[in-house]
Amino acid sequence: MPSAPSEHAATPEIILAGIREAFAGALRPDPELTIGEWSDQYRVLSRVSAGEPGRWRTSRTPFLREIMDCLSPSSPFSRVVYMKPAQIGGSEVLLNMLGYIIHYAPGPTMLVEPTVELAKRFSRQRIASLIDNTSVLAQRVSDPRERDSGNTILAKEFPGGVLVVTGANSSVGLRSMPARFLLMDEVDAYPPSASSGAAGTEEGDPVDLAIRRTATFANRQIAMVSTPTIAEASRIEQAYLESDQRKYYVPCPHCGVFQILRWSGVKWPDRKPADAWYECERCQGHIADHQKAAMLERGEWRAEAAGDGETAGFWLNALYSPWTIWSQLAKDFLRARKSPERMQTFTNTILAETFQQAGATKTDASELLGRRQPYRAEVMLPAGVVLITVGADLQADRIEMEIVGWGRDEESWSLAYIVLPGDPAQRDLWDGFDQVLSLTFEHPCGQEMEIAAACVDSGFHQPIVQQFCSDRGRRRALPKMYPIKGAAGQRPIWPRMHSKAKDNRPLWVIGVDAAKEALYARLKITEPGPGFCHFPISDQYDQGYFEQLTAETCRVRYTKGFASREWTKKAGARNEAIDARCYAYAALQSLIAGRFRLNKQAQHIEALMAAKSAGEEGHGQSAAQSAGRQERRPWIERQDWLERRSNS
Ligand SMILES: [Zn+2]
After folding, report:
1. How remote is the CA of residue 259 from the centroid of ligand 1, in Å?
2. Confidence grade of residue 562 (pLDDT, cut at 50, 70, 90)
């Protein structure tokens, strides 16, 4: 295999080619065809990547036509913003624009994905398929596998231009060349700041960095596409607010009144989401799924603001999707309603609206104190608990840990908060910790429950913690032990893969911001049920505990005009209680990542409870029989998640 050119795009030849083409491109008259017209005429979708393979038809998603028109070189707008739900053609708009550029309006072009990894994937899967399946493009871009093709995954030359694909996390990529066309995909997933690789210095907002590369082009075209995220921290919403704020109005098939499709229009009979319809805001007529295509075809974009004169902004939600039916949306909503996290996903990816975070406002310590309930896990577990995890935080002179019980839909019961004093270098502390981890709890179903998983923050004592976790893991199956490290920023609560510590032992890096968001959103829930947090009346859960638990606030911070979220705690406040809680939640997530299903476990425990009470109501013999049956049915019915993790 010939040695591959650097994937970082910026070879001097490519940069020079970009600059040359920048001036050549500026002189070439742009053709009259719009991007939409070009796509209908030339673009072919592959069987592999598209739900509907074959010729691209703008008429299938007529709302994309005007977006693509505004991105065409003949448009008076230099920036186009598309704030959209998931899977409604955002990438397709960018791909059509790319095809158009390569074929009709060649020039230096940069496409930015949230990370370099995603950029590679987008190039391999989507751009490669665009080029391979559209013959006029295949003729112009040589296959990167050919020798001297001048092409790599992240850099493609074509007559009159060059395309660089890069990640918003790479300032090297973002600085690689001047660009007339700048295509920015999923901008809300960009990191707050691009870094310059090895040195790790932060180089500022990637959107700013990229836009600066277009400054020398009077006829530049910038596309920003994204599903929105958190209110006040969303780049796409910010850009949309600077635009002329277009919304897509469609006519009611009954009364003809043009209107925006809104979530409030989706109606269904009580408990029957399958029978959902859309209700006209004027005549209250029922609009069925099959009537949508005609409405979309007759729809029109209407601007609702003056904007900055340079930016055309488009907003759309999933109600407009030709592939979505009302009943599916109703069902999605009912599922989402169960937790703030799912509600955020629903709000962002279906409604294409930013989500107002519950964690942004503070939960009051006294209110939580007043909400405590009389249960004592050391005597008997609350019946709703179906799984137990531990989160532990190692300090210089103690281990602080919380034992948390989990039930259906992640309703939780704090079972105990334990502080073990001691020197981490001494055996005593670890013996004490070992005893806590070996605790068993009596459940009303008649079973004893063990702790299923534990996350231990290694702090400054990583080797000791890792040694303890691996020793204990060898000795006993439960709990599953995870040495962890918390990390701020945009990352999932439980990592897809573990990292390695300096001595090569596994270390799991936990997304603490996401865990805190989940925790703070749940503390806001006031009724027992999905996500609700129960606390016992006990000395461990006193005013001081709740003050720690509520010590942090999530703020939106502005750096150079860019908003990012940041967790801060009051000066001097301790927050081990939050950490322990978040780690216990991460331990639950570790099991879920290993295919454990909490609600299935809840079902299993409920069945044990039902069997037990049926036995108690019957006469002695059947009670004994059912008790015998219970002996043979362990509290965790299927243990494949357990084995899976042990092998990993
Ligand atoms: Zn109507």
Report:
1. 9
2. very low
Distance 255 CA to ligand 1 centre (A): 4
- Say how far apart CA 305 and CA 313 lie, in whole Å: 10
Q: Are 457 and 583 in contact (CB under 8 A)?
A: yes
Residue 6 has pLDDT above 80, yes or no: no
Interval between CA 251 and ligand 1 midpoint (Å): 8
| pLDDT tier at 534, thresholds 50, 70, 90 | very high
What is the extent of the structural domain holding 402?
365-599
- Tell me how far the alpha carbon of residue 317 lies from the centroid of ligand 1, in angstroms: 20
Burial of 28 (0-12, 13-18, 19+ CB in 10 A): middle
| Separation of CA 287 and ligand 1 centre (Å) | 8
Give the CATH number, domain containing residue 200.
Answer: 3.40.50.300
Identify the band that residue 13 occupies on the pLDDT scale cut at 50, 70 and 90.
Answer: low
How remote is the CA of residue 298 from the centroid of ligand 1, in Å? 14
Percent over 90 (pLDDT), the chain: 57
Same domain, yes or no, for 307 and 385?
A: no
Q: Tell me how far apart the alpha carbons of residues 532 and 404 are, in angstroms, rounded to a whole number.
A: 13
* DSSP single-letter state for residue 362: P
Cα angle 232-237-242, degrees, rounded to a multiple of 5:
110
Answer yes or no: do 313 and 389 share one domain.
no
Q: Give distance in angstroms: CA of 232 to centre of ligand 1.
A: 35
Ligand 1 centre to CA of 313 (Å) is: 27
Q: Letter for the amino acid at 350? A: I
Task: Provide the domain count of the chain.
Answer: 2
User: What pLDDT does residue 564 have?
Assistant: 60
| Interval between CA 280 and ligand 1 midpoint (Å) | 5
Ligand 1 center from residue 348 Cα (angstroms): 28
- Lowest-confidence region among 185-189, 193-197, 582-586: 193-197
Tell whether 58 is covered by a domain: yes
- How many angstroms separate the alpha carbon of residue 323 from the centre of ligand 1? 22
pLDDT(646) > 50? no
**CATH code for position 425:** 3.30.420.240
pLDDT at 149: 61
Question: By three-state DSSP, how is residue 126 classified?
Answer: helix
Same domain? 178 vs 59: yes
Residue range 21-69, pLDDT digits in tens: 555 544 454 567 899 999 999 999 887 656 677 899 999 999 999 999 9
Q: Is residue 24 part of a domain?
A: no
- Adjacency order of strands within the sheet including 533-534: 499-500, 506-511, 480-487, 453-457, 387-394, 398-406, 412-421, 533-534
Expressed in angstroms and rounded, the spacing between residue 15 Cα and the centre of ligand 1 is 56
In the reported structure, the alpha carbon of residue 248 is separated from the centroid of ligand 1 by a whole-number distance in angstroms of: 16
For residue 73, the CA-to-ligand 1 centroid distance in Å is 38
* Cα-to-centroid distance, 279 and ligand 1 (Å): 8
pLDDT tens string 99-151: 999 999 999 999 999 999 999 999 999 999 999 999 999 999 987 666 666 68
